[in-house]
Amino acid sequence: MKKSIYISAIIATFCHSTYSQERRTLDLQETIRIAADSSLYARKYKNQLESSYWEFRAYKAERLPSLTLNVMPIEYYRYLTKRYDSENDIDVYRQQQVFTSSAALSLTQNFAPLGGYFYATTSLERMRNYGSSDYTQYSSVPIKIGYSNSLLGYNEHRWNKKIEPLKYEKAKLYYLYYMEYLSSLAIQYFFNLANAQASYDLAILQSAQCDTLYNIGKRRIEIASITQTDIMRLRLDAVKARTAKTSAEVALKEARMQLASFLSMNPNAELHINMPGILPDFEIDTQKALEMMHKNSYELINVEQAVLEAEQTLDKVRKQTRFQANVGASVGFNQQGDAVSKAYQDPMRQDIVSINITIPLLDWGVNRGKRNMAYSQMEIARISAQQTMAEKEQEILVTISELRSRRELYTTAEETLTLADKVYDQTMKRFISGTSDLTALTQAQGDRLSAQESYINAIYKYWDCYYKLRRLTLFDFSIGFSLSDKFDLENEINK
Fold first, then answer.
1. Averaged over 136-161, what is the pLDDT?
2. Mean pLDDT, to the nearest integer, of 95-104?
3. Torsion over CA: 168, 169, 173, 176 (sign)
4. Which of 47, 185, 321, 356 is the one with CA 20 to 30 A from 373?
5. How far apart are CA 38 and CA 264, in angstroms?
6. How far is CA 342 from the centre of its chain?
7. Per-residue pLDDT tens digits for 424-439
8. For the purposes of burial, counting CB atoms within 10 Å of the CB of 137, is it exposed (0-12), middle (13-18) or buried (19 or more)?
9. What is the rounded CA–CA span in Å between residue 52 and residue 180?
10. What local confidence, expressed as pLDDT, does residue 9 receive?
């Protein structure tokens, strides 16, 4: 037993060691793909999509016929009831004991154009009396067909027919929007690690170079080619470089853990970044971008839905605070007998027609206030829709302009980094040969570090801006297709 536990412990330790030493290199597109497939955010957005999907399925099911079976197998009650005694010409209380059971089958179909519903039912009831009058009866309704509706009233089905498909489309676009937002988050974590990785690599290089320069300085001070102050500054730079290397290593580990956690990967994985190459070069058609925004923006559909719901509320308030007439009609058959078979013999015709009218006569302005309030809410919704439309169009134009500027800034940052590297290398050679002072070398080091950070930040800002434009339009400008057109919601749900 102890031996097996010991072996298990060794295996677990080995597995943990292997797991903790996992090494993986990621490029930008792979990082975005993993985020869309495995991150917790992706699961959250997919669950929201599934909820909207089943909500729409429920709405479609409500438009189909519904079949319901109602069964009451047992109902027993005993009570005193008042009866007229014809022999003595008086009312008396008598005990009544009744045992009943019943079953009914109902078929209902909503009729959206008028807002009412058709129904068909069949039922059978058995009643058993005990006591002085001991007998059994059956009552049947072989068939009953009817229709119920509110004339000139509020038609909820007509409004649902407009709003529910809109909500379904909004759910799809909302999902796509936030998957593109997820891409932006992946880009952010990716370039945080890229920056930390580059800073760490540079910190290692600078630490080694500072140690080399300090050793050179110690030899040069022996021949009095540099001052004691310079040698102390070289030593200080070497100490600061080692401290910077340690800080950069801590920042690198933290950036790795953040990216791994975001991608739902092993938090101890040693992730490395493969920087994206040349930026894609394509022209953004402003009119196409605006067209795709109008077509694919869930926010515009959201305000359109808000306007429809405000109009729905106004319609409901208007019709419920004025003249109302409810009508119902049915035709069928019923019969009763002391046996089941007799309850279905020679059924009698049963016709029912009912009209119920409600007319508000005096309400002290309450209903008018409700109508005015609903109208004001509708106008607010329409104005908000216009404001949102203008804001989204402005955001598209600003983003396109920013994307063009980001490409120019990237070109400048790339050139600056190349020049900063050359200046640093030349300054280092001159310092070693004794033709340059320490101040120039320190300045060159700072310029190279700043140029590297600007270069990585320029690439990050470009990709972040590009995916923002994708998020706003749900259109891939690099290959020219609408993300919403290629998206199969049911296939996504069933994956």
1. 86
2. 86
3. positive
4. 356
5. 6
6. 61
7. 889 888 877 777 777 7
8. middle
9. 19
10. 36
Tens of pLDDT, residues 15-38: 444 444 578 899 999 999 999 888
Which pairs with CB-CB distance under 8 Å and at least 24 residues apart come from 24-29? 24/265, 24/269, 24/270, 24/271, 24/272, 25/271, 25/272, 25/273, 25/274, 26/190, 26/259, 26/271, 26/272, 26/273, 26/274, 27/273, 27/274, 27/276, 28/187, 28/190, 28/276, 28/463
Task: Measure CA 83 to chain center.
Answer: 67
Quickly list DSSP for 233-260. Answer: HHHHHHHHHHHHHHHHHHHHHHHHHHHH
Buried b (16+ CB within 10 A) or exposed e, 169-192: bbbbbbbbbbbbbbbbbbbbbbbb
Q: Quick check: 385 and 306 in contact, CB under 8 A?
A: yes
pLDDT in tens, 225-245: 567 777 788 888 888 888 988
Using CA atoms, how far apart are residues 459 and 465, in angstroms rounded to an integer?
10
Beta bridge partners of 332: 144, 350
Helix (H) or strand (E) holding 69: strand 66-85
φ, ψ (nearest 5 deg) of residue 267 = -65, -20
Q: Specify whether the CB–CB gap between 153 and 118 falls below 8 A.
A: no
pLDDT surpasses 60 at 3? no
pLDDT digits over 167-188, tens only? 999 999 999 999 999 999 999 9
Residue reference for tokens 């920013």 = 402
Would you say residue 361 has pLDDT above 90?
A: no
- Answer left, alpha or beta for residue 264, where phi above 0 means left and psi between -120 and 50 means alpha: left
Residue listed under structure tokens 């016929």: 65
Kindly report whether the global pTM for this prediction surpasses the value 0.90.
no
Across-strand partners of 103? 71, 124
CA–CA separation, 33 and 445 (whole Å):
37
| Both structure tokens of 459 | 């690439």
Contact 165, 477 (CB under 8 A): no
